[in-house]
Design goal:
The protein is of the alpha+beta class. The chain is about 15% helix and about 25% strand.
């Protein structure tokens, strides 16, 4: 039996099954069992932006990997090749912010900062802002809605707005989304109403991502009513 074990072990090793460089990304294990682990099977409300957002990837990497052309329309059941590295490992992101970084950004809602941004393992890639149920949520910038739905696990009703090729903003746990994919929104426009998170707490969970990498929203917006 021991000899058989070593034969099987070395056969697997030589075939590459234990090669860490061949390991797939952490993808879709919770709802796509049986699918090839380095591919993603598109669902009905998916967009290339929501898929990249969900798995911490840069949408541009997915576009290149799958030879997609604007406007990157996907078909239900389509298999997408997933990139193997999170955006933060494939891009050299600046750690400082210029005086112009915050220009063009608007606070989506004024309220108490309930949860700060953290880059630590297990930290939060966005901020939570308190408020009242049904409170209007405003777009933080001009841009195009690239996702509006509840298909991204852990975010409830979610809206993702593309400001430009680098920046996305995300608004989660909404009571109601007021915009749909393809809508152009203006900074300050009401796009949703505030809802509750999974812990039944009324709040807006807000993220800004640059090149697929979460950045601290407080570097771009101010919760002060005087700002």
């Amino acid at each position: 039996m021991r000899l058989l074990f070593f034969i099987v072990f070395f056969s697997l090793l030589l075939s590459g099954c234990f090669d860490s460089s061949s390991l797939p990304p952490v993808v879709n294990g919770w709802y796509q069992q049986g699918a090839a682990s380095n591919f993603y099977v598109v669902r009905s409300d998916d967009t290339i932006y929501s898929i990249a957002f969900e798995f911490g990837l840069n949408y541009q990497d997915l576009v290149i990997a799958n030879n997609l052309n604007p406007p990157y329309k996907l078909q239900t059941g389509q298999r997408l090749k997933m990139t193997h590295q999170p955006a933060m490992l494939t891009r050299n992101q600046p750690t400082h912010y210029s005086a112009f970084s915050s220009l063009g950004w608007h606070c989506p809602v004024r309220g108490q900062l309930l949860q700060k941004f953290s880059q630590k393992p297990g930290g939060h890639p966005g901020i939570s802002i308190g408020g009242w149920l049904g409170e209007p949520i405003q777009a933080a910038s001009n841009g195009v809605v690239v996702y509006s739905g509840d298909g991204v696990r852990g975010y409830g009703n979610l809206i993702i707005v593309k400001k430009n090729d680098q920046y996305l903003s995300a608004y989660a746990h909404n009571q109601r989304n007021l915009v749909k994919v393809g809508d152009y929104v203006h900074s300050g426009q009401v796009i949703a109403h505030m809802g509750k998170n999974d812990a039944d707490r009324t709040l807006l969970y807000f993220e800004i991502r640059r090149g697929g990498v979460p950045v601290d929203p407080m570097k771009y917006i101010s919760l002060s009513k005087d700002a």
